[in-house]
Design goal:
Elements: E1 2-12, H1 18-29, E2 32-38, E3 41-49, H2 50-62, E4 69-78, E5 86-88, H3 108-114, H4 158-165, E6 186-190, E7 195-196, H5 200-209, E8 214-217, E9 222-227, H6 231-241, E10 249-251, H7 255-261, E11 262-263, H8 266-273, E12 279-284, E13 301-305, H9 310-315, E14 322-326, H10 341-345, E15 351-355, E16 367-371, E17 374-379, E18 388-390, E19 398-400, E20 410-413, E21 416-419, H11 429-445, E22 452-456, H12 462-473, E23 479-483, H13 485-497, E24 503-513, E25 519-527, E26 532-538, E27 541-544, H14 547-551, H15 554-564, H16 569-575, H17 585-592, E28 598-601, H18 604-614, H19 626-634, E29 646-650, E30 655-659, H20 661-672, H21 677-703, E31 707-711, H22 718-730, E32 734-737, H23 748-762
Parallel strand pairs: 2-5, 8-15, 10-13, 12-16, 19-22, 22-23, 24-31, 26-30, 31-32
Antiparallel strand pairs: 1-3, 1-4, 2-3, 6-7, 6-15, 8-9, 9-14, 10-14, 11-12, 12-13, 16-17, 18-21, 19-20, 20-21, 24-25, 25-26, 27-28, 29-30
Helix pairs in contact: 1-2, 13-23, 15-16, 15-17, 15-18, 18-19, 20-21, 21-22
Amino acid sequence: MRVRYHIEISGVVQGVGYRPFVYNLAHSLGLSGHVYNHAQGVSVEAEGEEAICQDFITALRVQAPALAVVQQVRSWAVAPRQEEGFRILPSRAGQGRTLVAPDLSICEDCLAELRNPADRRYRYSFLNCTHCGPRFTIIRDLPDDRSNTSMAVFPLCPDCAAEYRNPTNRRFHAQPTACPVCGPQLRWLDENGCSIVGDALEFARMALYNGSIVAVKGLGGYHLVCDAQNAEAVQRLRQRKYRFDKPFALMMPDVDTVRCYCVLNEQEETLLCSTQRPIVLLKKQPGLALLPEQLAPGNRRLGVMLPYTPLHYLLIEGFRALVMTSGNVSDEPIVYEDAELVQRLSGIADGFLTHNRAIVRRCDDSVLLWAAGGSRMLRRSRGYAPQALPFLDCGHNILACGGEQKNVFCLVRGSQAFLSAHIGDLDNPATLNCYDEQIADFCRMFDSQPDVLVHDLHPDYFSTQYAKEQARQSAPQTLVLGVQHHHAHLASVLAERQYAGRVLGLIFDGTGYGLDGSLWGGEFLLGDCAHFQRLAHLAALPLPGGEAAIREPWRIALAALLDLCGGDTVALQQLAPPYLLQKGWPIVMQAVSSPLYASRSTAMGRLFDAIAAIAGIGLRSSYEGQAAVALEQKLDEATTGAYQFTIEADRQENCLIADWRPVVRQAVADVHAGVGPGLISARFHRAVVDLCLRMSCRLAAHSGVRTLALSGGCWQNVYLLEQVIPLLQAQGFTVLTNTAVPCNDGGLAFGQAAVAAALLKRGEISCV
């Protein structure tokens, strides 16, 4: 019997070749009907024999293109029309929004064309097809048609138009498709922003060969690029960018080259070669000095990515490695608009390789790490944003505003959570403007007006102030909710792993505003997404000068030693290694006794800072977490021994306290005994591992809970992850960690949203 079905498909089904797939599938099965895009997804009508139609509906999900993410296929019978043939109809506008595909690296077919002298797109910097190329960074509106992208200003030539209209061609409705005749073109600008006539690519390549720094326009913004083998160029880039110590990202031409410089396992190779093409943190090859130390000073790892656009493949020809760092001054957002290019980067770049395809929204490179048997997202951006993450549907649209550092916000619509691309630290006007613009962009793109605004408890965070200001300007029924920082970290793990029960949370980071108004960060929590209890924490460390202590960890170390000396500065001078007695130290120590100038923190990250400074390897930090990173990099696993925390009960707080004083005492004794920083680092790390095990066992015995969640920036430490997880599992614990969501503050907004959703779902809070 002949039947006809109307079918609605939702998910990432635009810009990924889904309509050609439907068209060809229908033709192969002899079905009539049509397919078209609309704002919510893809609509299909298919007519034919019942059994064939059912096979067709099943195949729409199970045989979908590799880049598609089919979330739902709904179908219902309609009246047959007895029409012939299957057609692709023009897209239709409408309410609601489908999902937007992230940017994708160049596919093998396009790469072959790029390298084929007989192909009309030979060495063309902007070739792509439905399987690859820009998506998120060029789309202005939905549905995903060329007219709604920054490619709208490039009319297709007859050859490209024929491919674009041919359902059997892999460029059928590939919105960014173009060729040298009709598509975007490269331009070379000198250091003053003046356009130079000639081969722009060759100008850029010669500049790199000659040791210059070049700003290169990528998918989601500009990179600052130099020859990674040129130590003088690398150092000059550091000085101009004001990025004095933080490692640079590198691009290498292929996996074989990566193996020359880095130890590479199968899983890391898979991450490198994935369509997302993230930066992957890889161990350096031991004993090799093939690249300048300035690329990653004092670090045993290099952040490496492979080329992901045709332009990258052409640019890197003849180079072993290029520095490919964000096009900005440190801590500012990446430059992506041509109008701001020269103004913001002229003091850094010696020339500019740009082009006339507009970037609609900035999107920095993603950063991943393989550790403890899994991939760990450290920065979720290009290639991943704005892919939706599954989420608890609480019946409300939620905007979670994130934190102050590594800011990412989260927009929740129904059962989907959309994390923004990496924004950065909200501590300068350029980043604040970026934050405001991207939130407005997401709300428009996903057709979502939040009725719940969630923020960190810290009153001085810009994200907190933003949420409260938005609430004042919006409808009176808008709910504003503050979520404690470490509870958000805990909830980020539970929401990602879709775990509904209570867990013990080992939440370690550098800073977080506590319920008591003090700074937390070495926390042992018991809770779920809705609620938590603080069962234990690290003893508080003095932070002389507040933020100054984070920039100058010697202050924290000296204050800790002063505590051991009972406040006796004479005894302190005898106990402290000479390098801790920095200029002005007596005044700094006076601040320890003043509540106006010396806050205290229970943060594990600050204890890492103190031990690094005591070991003489982290007296000052030019970027967040530098001292802790340096301490991890110095760790000598071949050594023996461990320091040990004491665990004491605090009846006033009704919780356990992990006292760091014995650890600091043992570390400074080792310094005076001539022990090197590698052994001090190893003994300290083992002390933290031992603390995690002992505290988890005690709290599990007390609470009856044997599932653990690890989150917070300290869990980016590979040694801790790879030591703690198997030890806890050997004791019968189930261990949950972040994988697709960063454990650092880049995952904070996801956790904030999870707390709000859980409370709303339980009816414990509501919109008026």
